[in-house]
Amino acid sequence: MSHNLNIASIRNDFPILNEVVNGKQLVYFDNAATTQKPRLVLDALAGYYEHYNANIHRGIHHLAEKATSAFEQSRKRLQAFLNAEHSEEIIFTYGTTDGINLVASAYGRKFLKEGDEVIISTMEHHSNIVPWQMLCEEKGCILKVIPINDEGELLMDEYEKLLTERTKFVSVVHVSNALGTINPIKEIIAKAHAVGAKVLIDGAQASSHIQINVQDLDCDFYSLSLHKIYGPTGMGILYGKRDLLNAMPPYRGGGEMIKEVTFAKTTYNELPYKFEAGTPNIADVVAAKFALDYVDALGKPNIAAYENELLAYATEAVKEIEGLRIIGQAKEKVSVLSFVIDGIHHQDIGVLLDQQGIAVRTGHHCTQPLMNRFNITGTSRASFAVYNTTEEIDKLIQGLHKVKRMLG
Ligand code: PMP
Q1: Which of 9, 43, 58, 305 has its CA 20 to 30 A from that of 371?
Q2: Mean pLDDT score, 23-43
Q3: What are the residue boundaries of the Aminotransferase class V domain, all occurrences included (predicted)?
Q4: 77 in contact with ligand 1, CB cutoff 6 A
Q5: What interface predicted TM-score (ipTM) does this complex get?
Q6: Which fold has domain 7-30+299-407?
């Protein structure tokens, strides 16, 4: 697959790429943690605060109406982005973590009972482990874990063996942040549905690389963060099937999520507001639309094709670093290169690369059980986005040679 992107022009859209770090031009390879934001997203944020900052839904004045309209346009934009059937299936959250907690809490507490089983996988981010552990502890449910192979791929046969009539919920990551593995979620969802279980997909890492179609996937819930898709921090969305969302109790109580409040009884608002208590991150929601417009203008297949080129280039290039081992060699993976180097601590690699202006992430990447599976305490991770280049990867390789010379 080839792309038709003008990378030099794309780089110009991201002002932060001109930053100088430790005397060197910034090389930003920490995109799996958060992507940088294009100028039009920054302008949208400033434009909101400069021209129509107001609280939404409750006001009748001009600014409130303008802010409400922009906020709801973002919802429609996200509906299209995921191909959801109804706009009220898009719930604004504070991010992937918040969406998963919403489902574990509101769906889990109402519909799961003692002895029921929840399945997650070995490669989950802590945000898709801990909420389910908390639920299982509270309700007396059993948490089961799909194992993986040494390449970092789910063992689908083992998954099938875990599925029983007691399985009530399956919650798996679409793309692993620590390995880059793309999981076969359509198959995972179909198999879970065959035993009557509901499925949540943690889409935090997938949504910037892969076209998501929630109707085709038939997932019950899909949670993501906009800050990983060139959008602002502090906001994300939870997609949920309308019937399920309607059947769930609210997650948080407060303003906006109610129909009528008396001291005797409160009735709840309709979707999506039932799940949106309090004042949301209005500016960030409004600006998120522009991030999605940006991504769609480039075209996700183009972005993926280019990022795959970068990944292939980097995967080949790191072979010249003696003692370097890639963690996560799945056949299907996104542009995440996680690695360890014999005898050198990942944190030292991160510090020395930073001295050369190169930003990578080091540590357990909020996936401690996954690190345990590979008998390591952490990795160094370079994760590539559409504005990265092969020249930057060359700098990474030079940087790693320097690390080896100093510490190897
Ligand atoms: N799941 C995965 C796979 C992630 O990579 C992340 C972010 N690192 C999260 C969940 C949590 O996302 P957030 O911190 O935006 O809530």
Answers
A1: 305
A2: 98
A3: 27-396
A4: no
A5: 0.99
A6: Aspartate Aminotransferase, domain 1 (3.90.1150)
